[in-house]
Every structure is written in structure tokens, then in C-alpha cells.
Design brief:
Low-confidence stretches: none
CATH architecture: Orthogonal Bundle
Radius of gyration: 19 Å
Number of helices: 14
Number of domains: 1
Strand content: 5-15%
Distance between the termini: 34 Å
Shape: globular
Structural class: alpha+beta
Oligomer: single chain
CATH class: Mainly Alpha
Mean pLDDT: 97
Order of helices and strands: EHEEEEHHHHHEEHHHHHHHH
Number of strands: 7
């Protein structure tokens, strides 16, 4: 167990913010997730103190970066135009949400799966995809202040090599639907070396967007989501039906994301969380 103090961090709100599909709130104090082939549980101890079901070495090696804990989110929100009432209210409502730095391959496949689906449906399909080829993770036995995990067994998201063994029928059986050929194409792109995450990180925003938008079955929204949540390009501003509703109701049809070139994606998460939950 590792305990630490973290300002501007709310695991429950992050779990409910729609950016990842394998992080879940257990109860008001406990949140669990599976990422990078590991199970993690977080306990909110009060006063911005948290307990993590890992040791300090694992926390520093994996979870500090995953939760983007080295970014000063207080500074980000203070930079927002104070006359923008909707955005200010959204930030206050979603205080503690951070942008997760997710595995790039998992992000691509998950957001291809996400097209024209509700979050519960996406979650179910991503879990089933993981069960097809991912490494089996037995739920750990945890002592207080942790609680019993929601499941006895979890599955890591498949690696590219593991996913390459999944066939069309299996994808049809888990409900991938019309997205099946898009998923297979994306897996092949990673397997062949056409897409190499380390090289993709070296590209400019425009170059990375060009690579993603040219993938089979990837449109504007999915490309921007992958850029934001898989490659941490926090200036990207994905627009879905919820964000479009906000733009129409509060911004005359268009939110000027260019005003926040380094943080528009962070602000988008506050807006998305607020409109869905207020």
C-alpha cells in the first residue's frame, strides 16, 4: 500500500468522466481499474489523501504518469476566462478530473469500439474484447482501507500480438458489429509496423491527426479522442453529441477551443462531465 496527498484529484469523477472504459467506482470512497496489465484500487481517505493498492515504486513508475499527476491542473483552471460562466461552473462541478495517459493501442481500439454507442455498451464490449485474448488477472486479496474488488478475475487489454489472434467471428460474437473490419484493420496497422506508438509521439499534432484520420473507420471525433486520451495532446477538443449540445445552448453553435491551445481537451472533460451529470 502507498498513501500520498494529491491536490485536484478525484478518482470517482475520473471514472465517471467517459475518457476510459476500464476504471470503475466501487463506492463513494473506492475506485478500481485495470491498465497496463495490472489491477489497481484507490481509496479516498479524505483531505486529499489517497491510498493506492501498490507500492511506491509501482506508483512512481506507472500510476503517477497515468493520472498525469505532474501537471498543475490548478494553474490550468485558473487560466480560464472568468466571464465564461458555463465553463467556470463545469470546472467547479468536475474538480479533480485529470486526463489519463492511456496505452496508445488500447485507446485506438477502444475509441473505434465507442462509435455510436453509450458508455455502458462501450465498457461491455471493451471488457469482452479483453477477455478474448488478454492476460488473466486474479483479483488481489486486499486489507483495509481497501475493499473487495468487484470481480474475482480481470483481464488485461490484449497486446498487439495477442489481439492479432482474434478473428472476425469472435469480434462479431462480442457485439463489435460494423466496427469489426475497422478493429481488424487497426490491429494489422500496429502489427505490420505501419503504426508505431513511439514514432507517433514524435509527430506534430497535425501530422498525428493525419495519420489517425487516414486509418480505416476512424473519423474526426475518434481521431481527436485518441490524440487526447492516448497521446496526451491536451489541445485537442473532441466534439460528440454532448459537446455539440453545449456549443449550441451556451456558445452560439461553436466553442472557440483555439483560445486554449494547450488545455482545450482538459476543459472539454469538465464540460462533458458537467452536462451529463448536473
Amino acid at each position: 500500500m502507498y498513501t500520498t496527498h494529491i491536490d485536484f484529484f478525484d478518482p470517482a469523477r475520473i471514472a465517471d468522466s467517459g475518457q476510459a472504459f476500464r476504471i470503475h467506482q466501487i463506492d463513494s470512497s473506492h475506485t478500481e481499474l485495470v491498465a497496463f496489465g495490472r489491477y489497481l484500487q484507490i481509496v479516498s481517505l479524505g483531505g486529499n489523501d489517497f491510498a493506492f493498492s501498490c507500492d511506491k515504486d509501482e506508483f512512481d513508475l506507472i500510476w503517477r504518469e497515468y493520472f498525469d499527476l505532474d501537471t498543475d491542473y490548478v494553474k490550468v483552471v485558473k487560466s480560464v476566462d472568468k466571464t465564461d460562466k458555463f465553463l467556470k461552473d463545469a470546472i467547479d462541478f468536475g474538480e479533480g478530473i485529470r486526463i489519463l495517459k492511456q496505452d496508445e493501442f488500447e485507446s485506438v481500439i477502444s475509441y473505434i469500439i465507442s462509435q455510436r454507442r453509450s458508455i455502458p455498451s462501450i465498457t461491455t464490449c471493451v471488457d469482452r474484447f479483453s477477455e478474448l485474448a488478454g492476460k488473466r488477472i486474479k483479483a488481489p486479496k486486499l486489507e483495509e482501507p481497501f475493499c473487495k474488488p468487484l470481480k474475482d478475475v480481470y483481464y488485461a487489454f490484449p497486446t498487439v500480438n495477442e489481439a492479432s489472434k482474434i478473428d472476425q467471428k469472435q469480434l462479431d460474437d462480442i457485439g463489435a458489429g460494423y466496427r469489426t473490419p475497422y478493429i481488424i484493420s487497426a490491429i494489422n496497422d500496429f502489427m505490420s509496423g505501419k503504426l508505431i506508438p513511439s514514432r507517433m509521439h514524435e509527430l506534430s499534432d497535425d501530422e498525428l491527426y493525419g495519420v489517425l484520420i487516414n486509418m480505416y473507420g476512424v473519423g474526426v471525433k475518434v481521431a481527436n479522442c485518441v490524440m487526447l486520451f492516448g497521446f496526451h495532446r491536451t489541445g485537442r477538443f473532441p466534439v460528440d453529441v454532448w459537446i455539440k449540445r453545449i456549443e449550441d445552448e451556451y456558445y452560439g453553435g461553436h466553442f472557440d477551443a483555439a483560445r486554449y491551445p494547450q488545455s482545450a481537451g482538459i476543459l472539454q472533460q469538465f464540460m462533458f462531465y458537467y452536462i451529463r451529470n448536473k
